[in-house]
Design goal:
By secondary structure, the chain is an alpha/beta fold. The chain folds into two domains: about 170 residues, Aspartate Aminotransferase, domain 1; about 240 residues, Type I PLP-dependent aspartate aminotransferase-like (Major domain) (Aspartate Aminotransferase, domain 2, 3-Layer(aba) Sandwich), CATH 3.40.640. Helices cover about 40% and strands about 10% of the residues. The strands form five sheets. A five-stranded mixed beta sheet has the order 2-8-7-6-5. Strands 9-12-11 form a three-stranded antiparallel beta sheet. It has a two-stranded parallel sheet with strand order 1-10. Helix 2 runs antiparallel to helix 10. The chain is globular, with a radius of gyration of 21 Å. Ligand F0G binds next to helix 3 and helix 4.
């Protein structure tokens, strides 16, 4: 089969969901009503929804059948026992609840939490627990053009420097994200994961994995790292987990479910404390805010997620869209990542200053052009500095075209690419934005904007 296209989907469509086609005037009105924030668009006005890969996957017939096997006992649901990972697993209704628990239990006020690039909810929970985040990702991750094959890697020198400056006791733990979302879905190598964990463990610092997209990361290790080509994704995933002390997981991504997550740890005492906390915020420790059927779908989804054919098609679709854009000269984060294509909005719209949020404007303009909904991942997402209150402007100012798993066809990718390319040709018609409403926490979700001139984000 070498040389042939080999990533076509290992499934066929059994049921369809109709989409509403809209006109440009309808979309102009919808985006204005949504305060030029794609998060605030009613989804019925969206044609191709690339906002997120979170909770948007299509479940398989086996998962739907699994829903009928839900054991809705309040305590000790059978489905709970179908989930296992680290020594202790505590279900949560999604990833950020696991982050809340680990942050509250393991961070003391004034401590630092190093991590390989921030994620919005992860950092928020670290700060709410009195900690502060310190970025220890390699410099290449901040450069959209760098072709480094493992841009998610931690820079060991940055970790050593933190330990030297603060002392190991001032470091709560290291938060290790696989297939780093904000860097463009970029993986860590097994070598780096092992070296990072060894370094931390030598200093008595625990490492908690953000396993949200760990299977996608395992796929890249298999593809790119010597010695892994003949291993299964499950074996590689196991190896990643074995290096670390526990994990938080949003099952809404890799695990192919619409809701679900968990916290998993090896430490008995920490597990005990986490079980005490989950009853306050989520529910009993054998369901953590989920129905039994959700846990069953999650257990089946995890099994499906580590099938090589599935992951090959999944990443293959992302690469298909990415190559189309690269061929047309669209500036995107390189190499092509795992869960979506990240358009470099700063390079795409050089006439819009960072203070006018080029990525927010580009996402809104893309929606107006074609009904494709993307998401800003730049200055708006980064929020404000917790001490100075000033806007943070990370090096990466991106629009994320995130691909839900098993949902859209190749023709949908073509339509998306055509729209992005058309915008590139008319990029001068995109107008910058300013806030009209800025929420205190995770502002990107609910913020509202207006164009800095006129009343349209895409002129002409
Ligand atoms: N960690 C990572 C790396 C994530 O990408 C997310 C969610 C979470 C934790 C939080 O999980 O949503 O289940 O509470 N990312 C979504 C996204 C929202 O669109 O990237 P959650």
């Amino acid at each position: 089969m070498t040389g042939r296209r080999s990533w076509a989907e290992p499934w066929k469509v059994k049921m369809v969901e109709h989409l509403r086609m809209t006109t440009r005037p309808e979309r102009e009105q919808a985006i204005a009503q949504a305060g030029f924030n794609t998060f605030l668009l009613p989804s019925e006005f969206v044609y191709i929804d690339l906002l997120t890969d979170s909770g948007t996957s299509a479940m398989s017939d086996r998962q739907w059948a699994g829903l009928m096997m839900g054991d809705e006992a309040y305590a000790g649901s059978m489905n709970y026992y179908h989930l296992e990972s680290y020594k202790h697993l505590i279900p949560t209704h999604q990833g950020r609840c696991a982050e809340h628990i680990i942050s509250q239990l393991c961070i003391r006020p004034g401590q630092t939490v190093p991590g390989n690039m921030y994620f919005t909810t992860t950092k928020m929970h670290q700060e709410l627990a009195g900690g502060s985040f310190a970025d220890v990702i390699i410099d290449e991750a901040h450069d959209p053009r760098s072709e480094h094959p493992f841009k998610g890697n931690c820079d060991l020198k940055k970790i050593e420097k933190l330990i030297r400056e603060h002392g190991a006791e001032k470091i709560a733990y290291l938060s290790l994200e696989t297939n780093v979302n904000m860097a463009g879905g970029q993986p860590c190598s097994m070598e780096n994961i092992r070296a990072t964990c060894d370094l931390c463990h030598r200093h008595g610092i625990k490492v908690y994995l953000d396993a949200t997209r760990a299977v996608e990361n395992a796929y890249f290790i298999r593809e790119r790292e010597p010695g892994y080509a003949n291993k299964t994704l499950a074996e590689i995933l196991r190896e990643i987990c074995d290096c670390t002390d526990g994990a938080t997981m949003s099952a809404k991504k890799d695990a192919l479910v619409n809701i679900g997550g968990f916290l998993a740890v090896n430490d008995d005492e920490l597990a005990e404390r986490a079980r005490n906390m989950v009853v306050v915020y989520e529910g009993l420790h054998t369901y953590g805010g989920l129905a039994g059927r959700d846990m069953e779908a999650m257990a089946i989804g995890i099994q499906e997620s580590v099938q090589l054919d599935h992951m090959h098609a999944r990443i293959g679709q992302v690469e298909y869209l990415g190559h189309k854009l690269i061929e047309a000269g669209v500036p995107i984060v390189r190499p092509i990542g795992g869960h979506g294509i990240f358009v470099d909005a700063a390079a795409f719209l050089p006439h819009i200053p960072r203070e006018e949020f080029p990525a927010q404007a580009l996402a809104a303009a893309l929606y107006v052009d074609s009904g494709v909904r993307a998401m800003e991942r730049g200055g708006v997402s980064a929020g404000r500095d917790k001490e100075t209150g000033k806007n943070l402007f990370p090096k990466l100012e991106l629009v994320r075209l995130t691909l839900p798993r098993r949902v859209y066809t190749q023709a949908h990718m073509d339509v998306t690419a055509e729209s992005v390319i058309a915008l590139l040709e008319n990029s001068r018609k995109v107008v910058g934005l300013r806030f009209t409403y800025e929420p205190k926490y995770l502002r990107f979700f609910q913020a509202r904007f207006e164009p800095v001139r006129g009343n349209r984000v895409l002129e002409g």
